[in-house]
């Protein structure tokens, strides 16, 4: 299998150890109407350190089979809204004076 990399969104995490579900979306054109239709695929991804969170934007790459359904590994986290929110919250609590 040639090397493939996909960009997707984490839709399920925490149910299985070292595993996250990533949804890959793409658009196709309908043959008759010419409208754009969104198609999506859910892929089980290996997350070695359990650092993925819900709604993270990630890049995953195919690898040799890890289990019966896991064929992809986490390569990079592009954008993580949860960690950004925690960072801004921690910065705001440090800057505010305590009474």
β content, as a range?
over 45%
- Percent of residues in helices comes to 10-25%
What kind of sheet is the major sheet?
5 strands, mixed, barrel
The spatial strand order of the largest sheet comes to 1-2-3-5-4
Give the SSE order as H and E letters. Answer: EEEEEH
Overall 3D geometry? flat
Please tell me about this protein's structure.
By secondary structure, this protein is an alpha+beta fold. It contains one helix and five strands, in the order βββββα. The chain has a five-stranded mixed barrel with strand order 1-2-3-5-4. The radius of gyration is 18 Å and the shape is flat. The N and C termini lie far apart (61 Å). The relative contact order is 0.21. The mean pLDDT is 92.
Question: Can you tag this structure with a few keywords?
Answer:
1 helix, alpha+beta, 99 residues
Reconstruct the topology from this structure.
Elements: E1 5-13, E2 19-29, E3 36-46, E4 57-62, E5 72-79, H1 81-95
Parallel strand pairs: 3-5
Antiparallel strand pairs: 1-2, 1-4, 2-3, 4-5
Put the structure in a nutshell.
With 99 residues, the protein is of the alpha+beta class. It has 1 helix and 5 strands; from the N terminus they run βββββα. The chain has a 5-stranded mixed beta barrel with strand order 1-2-3-5-4.
């Amino acid at each position: 299998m040639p090397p493939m990399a996909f960009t997707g969104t984490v839709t399920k995490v925490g149910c299985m150890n070292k595993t996250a579900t990533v949804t890959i979306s793409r658009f196709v054109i309908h043959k008759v109407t010419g409208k754009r239709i969104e198609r999506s695929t859910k892929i089980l991804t290996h997350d070695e350190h359990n650092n993925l969170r819900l709604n993270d934007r990630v890049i995953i790459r195919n690898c040799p089979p890890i289990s019966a359904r896991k064929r992809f590994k986490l390569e990079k986290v592009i954008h993580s809204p949860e960690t950004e929110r925690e960072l801004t919250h921690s910065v705001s609590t440090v800057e505010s004076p305590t009474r």
